[in-house]
């Protein structure tokens, strides 16, 4: 067996004297109802160093042409051009979302790199968009999946693309630094359980927000704890001293960011009481506590109880700050459990999602493919008994046709030499899928889906920041008709071929095209 | 809300004058029947640079203690020690496979990094081991999942740990270079379909393996194609000229590595005939062709047909080389389809697996947890209504007890201060799980599972190469009793607590321990 990278490259070296083979490849998302396209990291496309070449020499057969290794050392993307759907655009199955043009060998070498960069990013971004649709626009969503990702790099990709897909926050500080994503987190259970006694709290004083002398904060909190327990009819003897010590230490360090996890022992017997006592003391010193995190059990039921206690505290102690406390819920949230959250009464303001988001448990992989569509001006097509797996031959343009409400009604795939469809002018086309009949449509508006993003080795379309792509993704999703984006049993979105492309497909399938030579004699 | 990294660290700075908090943490694999432990990349544990600290300063509240940032800049792992199960050992649910000891803040900062490094690596390694068990020991397995991994780094992790789990080859050339994993691959369909005519084949000659003048290889192959078609009753007019040209070019470049993909058009009408013609010509020039790859359709049925044709060619043309040709199968292979392959008649020698291997579709995430077990010499325990989610308190040792056949019969978790169990001496213990009763066992052999791998910031156990860990993994799996490792409905493996650890758990659960302070007065 042989490294697949070399088989084609040697062929290229062998053909160096002939006119450079130009060919085109595209990505075609299959299997997924829709996916958000995310652009490739173009600068990373190829960089082979001398020691890489020496490694390849060591694993290839002894007789391998020396010119191949010299060729590898000189390899670059200066003759490669890419047109792509901009990052954050919604694309549908079978739409060619990326077209790569360049020398045969170089473009074949890019196959796995491009698929690796596009597949998971698109998948996790689309998954995040589904969580956003399930959560509704109001609830804030926090990504916290690093510990279940495929290593640090997988985790960073997940943080970036779930943000683009509609999440608001990440717990990954490096992603915050690199991509400007707002970072957030609360405390760990191990922080809470590392304390056992109030004697461990140090310093023990806090200066009021408005200034003044330091106040004995432990004493203040103990007083509030008594009043809270009395109000709620709870026993102070069941309150965990370590939990109270942990909250005290945290609040003294971050009086303006007090948001503890309250389920380390018992929410109702200890965690919630400790929170209220510390938060009331903070309010007394004119600080605004932020809220609580629930990490186990029935989040809906607990959030109702917590909210009730907050309201009761305000009623009893006149602390309007308690009306704006937030409740964060984090406990193996899936798309389904998030959708169920919307049906049950609850008071959860922020939801943290980890495992089900980054590992995409609903669909763990995306099957974009990278196929040859043209060689030296001649169209190429992969035929398959499964029509879904056949590719569309030739260089193409993709147009999105909008209806009078500005909603996408169809994506039209044409050969690139065809004129673009015009708004208000009817056209005939062949929808892909079961209906094979000709259809007539009059678009109210027409947009071209792909842009030239990389031309002869240079980036020709400015790379977007994560927040710019996020905005595009949300707009792109908003314009979709609700029946195309609903999570259960969505309507099929129509993707159609132009008449000209349709007849090219028919010709090649029937063997009438120059692209499908048979060996007529030996 | 707040970065969780900082909440505990500030506490640490505040406590700098008190005796350093020592605490212990362990990994406990839950949810999975068994998992292979893979060691953390210890050198990467912590390295915070100045600009990272400046980023943290920019996102933390203005009032954050300046000493915290100075502390961060000085942070290192010089006071951290780790004991761990060696990479490639089988571990079972609830066994503490890694114990980290060090200053509270540092060890808490390591939580997500360690979980991120261990979780996916262990999961994908265990998944690979299941594929190996399903495939049986004879069939060779090739990992080819890069394009579905979570980016390049996720793909590298997958290549390394699937090799350790029992795969033989990878298509990831960088993994081959970095970890010494044997690399392999065949050609892409796009390589085959990029050719359309024999005119594109250049050079057209091949020098025989034993030396001599260059032979017109196209002419030679055309002759063989005619004879093959005659033998099999096939029509040369259905043979794809482009496919033949691709195979010719490949064979001329790599006469000793001829292993083409033969399903680009039609295996029986074109691909197999082209292969036989080129392979027979190679044999005539004393080269040994390697075999074929099948990438679609019913792999079993096709492999039988391909093998029949190989035998017929040998019978007719006396080419014993055709008896050792291999057949590679690659087509969305899952653990289940691999197991089914073993039940159906087929002639597949090598199986390539991508998506289902690296994304672990059967179970997409592993839930190792990292929990506090001791603070300043006092045991800590997380209690939960779900006994599976409770942690085991205190510093511990883990022993594997073997029966008289040398097979593991039980893992025994003891407090570290207890004496190790002795071979031939009976002991009593409490198995975890449903049976709460005391059990008596007399081990024939006792081994300690964990080793000190990192002591006060230094690696103290030599890091193993991928092939050394692979060997350990295979031995570790082989010693298991078959009923513990069968893929469907395996027997539970017993993990038990020593009497002393069991009574510590009971004490803490009943609130009798010093570790569980309640607030007795306010």
Automatic annotation (TrEMBL), chains A, B:
One function term, GO molecular function aspect: transferase activity
Annotated EC: 6.3.4.21
GO CC annotation terms, alphabetical: cytosol
Keywords linked to the UniProt accession: Ligase, Phosphoprotein, Pyridine nucleotide biosynthesis, Transferase
Domain of life: Eukaryota
Enzyme class at the top of the EC tree: ligase
Residue ranges of every copy of the Nicotinate phosphoribosyltransferase N-terminal domain listed in the record: 51-119
Summary of the function given for this chain in its UniProt record: Catalyzes the first step in the biosynthesis of NAD from nicotinic acid, the ATP-dependent synthesis of beta-nicotinate D-ribonucleotide from nicotinate and 5-phospho-D-ribose 1-phosphate. Helps prevent cellular oxidative stress via its role in NAD biosynthesis.
PANTHER family named among the record's database cross-references: NICOTINATE PHOSPHORIBOSYLTRANSFERASE (PTHR11098:SF1)
Protein name: Nicotinate phosphoribosyltransferase
């Amino acid at each position: 067996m042989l490294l697949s990278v070399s088989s084609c490259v040697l062929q290229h070296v062998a053909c160096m004297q002939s006119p450079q083979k130009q060919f085109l490849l595209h990505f075609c998302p299959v299997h997924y109802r829709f996916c958000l396209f995310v652009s490739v990291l173009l600068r990373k496309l190829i960089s082979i160093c001398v020691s890489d070449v020496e490694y390849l020499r060591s694993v290839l057969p002894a007789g391998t042409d020396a010119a191949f290794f010299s060729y590898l050392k000189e390899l670059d993307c200066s003759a490669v051009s890419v047109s792509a759907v901009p990052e954050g655009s919604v694309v549908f199955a079978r739409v060619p979302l990326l077209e790569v043009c360049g020398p045969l060998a170089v473009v074949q070498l890019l196959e796995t790199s491009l698929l690796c960069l596009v597949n998971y990013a698109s998948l996790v971004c689309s998954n995040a968009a589904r969580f956003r649709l399930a959560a509704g626009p109001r609830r804030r969503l926090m990504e916290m999946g690093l510990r279940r990702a495929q290593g640090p790099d997988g985790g960073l990709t997940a943080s970036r693309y779930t943000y683009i897909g509609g999440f608001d926050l990440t717990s990954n500080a490096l992603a915050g630094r690199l991509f400007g994503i707002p970072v957030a987190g609360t405390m760990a259970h191990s922080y809470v359980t590392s304390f056992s006694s109030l004697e461990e709290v140090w310093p023990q004083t806090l200066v009021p927000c408005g200034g003044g002398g330091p106040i004995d904060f432990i004493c203040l909190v103990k007083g509030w704890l008594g009043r809270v327990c009395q109000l709620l009819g709870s026993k102070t003897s069941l309150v965990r001293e370590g939990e109270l010590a942990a909250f005290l230490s945290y609040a003294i360090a971050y009086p303006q960011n007090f948001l503890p996890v309250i389920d380390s022992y018992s929410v109702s017997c200890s965690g919630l009481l400790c929170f209220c006592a510390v938060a009331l003391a903070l309010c007394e010193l004119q600080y605004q506590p932020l809220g609580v995190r629930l990490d186990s059990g029935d989040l809906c039921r607990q959030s109702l109880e917590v909210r009730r206690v907050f309201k009761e505290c305000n009623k009893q102690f006149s602390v309007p700050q308690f009306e704006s406390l937030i409740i964060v819920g984090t406990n193996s949230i899936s798309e389904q459990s998030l959708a169920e959250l919307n049906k049950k009464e609850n008071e959860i303001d922020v939801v943290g999602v980890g495992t089900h988001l980054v590992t995409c448990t609903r669909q763990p992989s995306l099957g974009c493919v990278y196929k040859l569509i043209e060689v030296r001006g001649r169209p190429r097509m992969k035929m398959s008994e499964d029509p879904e797996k056949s590719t569309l031959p030739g260089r193409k343009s993709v147009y999105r046709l909008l209806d009078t409400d500005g909603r996408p009604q169809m994506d039209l795939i044409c050969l690139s030499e065809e004129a673009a469809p015009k708004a208000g002018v009817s056209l005939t086309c062949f929808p892909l899928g079961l209906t094979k009949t000709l259809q007539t449509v009059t678009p109210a508006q027409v947009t071209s889906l792909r842009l030239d993003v990389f031309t002869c080795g240079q980036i020709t379309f400015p790379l977007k920041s994560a927040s710019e792509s996020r905005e595009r993704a949300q707009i792109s999703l908003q314009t979709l008709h609700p029946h195309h984006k609903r999570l259960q049993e969505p309507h099929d979105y129509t993707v159609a071929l132009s008449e000209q492309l349709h007849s090219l497909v028919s010709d090649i399938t029937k063997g009438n095209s120059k692209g499908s030579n048979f060996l007529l004699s030996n």
